[in-house]
Specification:
The protein is built from 10 helices and 10 strands. It is of the alpha/beta class and 319 residues long. The protein starts with a strand and ends with a strand.
Length: 319
């Protein structure tokens, strides 16, 4: 929580510009992040404000005397994301519609770095093409993959508004054009079908699947999470940046979605080298591994990721 006293950021910025040191949060490496993750250190807010001046109004001293933002404020989180992408990825434009999923960029970057390790070193002139299932309006996986590794991406999406926004992000950034293509998934019951064209080959497929079984379940989970973090009972969750329905839930939840992804993946075994997806619920892993064995995959791997108190993992398989 925050004190009521906001800070005057201008002297901090002047100091940063004059001696290139600035006033930062306490030095430190965030535990658990990949060694190549640019977001694995505490945020240098004066530097980030220079990258995105919109962030200035949201930066305060927290109860420990460090510069921070209110992470329950959707506008503050979006301003921080913009600053991170402007500074580290050299974007000139990024935005998302009200109510769209505002991704935790450091953990999304970790996914990309971990699957880069999965495919291993390639010759410098090798073209790596990836497919992002459910790219969303934020286009975050293709942005990080294209900027960090020069990969080319196809992003699939069912929501028309998300498609329009993701395409705008690509078009507005010269360093993303010709690297990312957004395709409309017209059949909400299909994953690869209708997106992968005949003869196309992808080194990787990546996915952050919808987790919950229903809209009400998603709202209940949001209330519990916010209540636990704020130590007060929340009756109405803050959904300003928690995501659209198709980003948060599907019938059967995460387990059902990934099971169907595995089933459909066998039809595209010659089009994709490694299929991968996030698995948030560890209890789903044994069931998913049984499904993989049922479809006789050649190899599967579980890549653990731990960011602070949050533990998740990537499930990868190939035929």
């Amino acid at each position: 929580m925050f004190r009521n006293d906001s800070i005057n950021i201008v002297p901090l910025l002047n100091n940063y510009k004059s001696n290139n040191k600035g006033i930062m949060q306490k030095e430190g490496i965030k535990q658990g992040f990949h060694k190549r993750n640019k977001y694995n250190k505490n945020y240098d807010f004066p530097q980030l404000i220079i990258a995105n001046l919109e962030l200035e109004r949201y930066v305060h001293k927290n109860q420990y005397g460090d510069l921070s933002i209110d992470f329950f404020d959707s506008n503050a989180v979006k301003a921080l994301n913009k600053a991170l992408l402007f500074y580290f990825s050299k974007l000139s434009y990024w935005d998302i519609p009200q109510g769209s999923l505002c991704p935790p960029i450091p953990s999304r970057a970790d996914y990309i770095h971990n699957v880069a390790d999965l495919i291993g070193d390639k010759p410098n002139n090798t073209k790596i093409k990836c497919i992002d299932i459910g790219v969303g309006s934020n286009c975050i996986f293709p942005i990080i993959g294209a900027i960090e590794y020069g990969w080319e991406f196809v992003g699939s999406e069912t929501n028309n508004d998300s498609i329009t926004n993701a395409r705008k992000i690509v078009e507005m950034n010269e360093n993303l054009r010709n690297k990312i293509e957004i395709r409309h998934q017209e059949d909400s019951f299909s994953i690869f079908r209708g997106i992968i064209k005949q003869g196309e080959y992808f080194e990787l497929s990546i996915c952050n699947p919808p987790f919950h079984n229903s809209n009400e379940e998603a709202k209940q989970a949001s209330r519990r999470k916010e209540s636990n973090l704020k130590h007060i009972k929340i009756s109405k969750p803050n959904l300003n940046f928690n995501g659209q329905d198709n980003e948060l839930w599907c019938k059967g939840g995460e387990l059902s979605f990934i099971k169907y992804m595995i089933e459909e993946s066998q039809l595209y075994r010659n089009n994709v080298n490694w299929f991968t997806t996030l698995v948030s619920n560890q209890d789903n892993l044994p069931k998913l591994i049984r499904v993989l064995k049922d479809f006789s995959v050649k190899e599967h791997k579980i890549i653990p990721m731990e960011h602070g108190n949050k533990k998740t993992r990537i499930l990868a398989w190939r035929y």
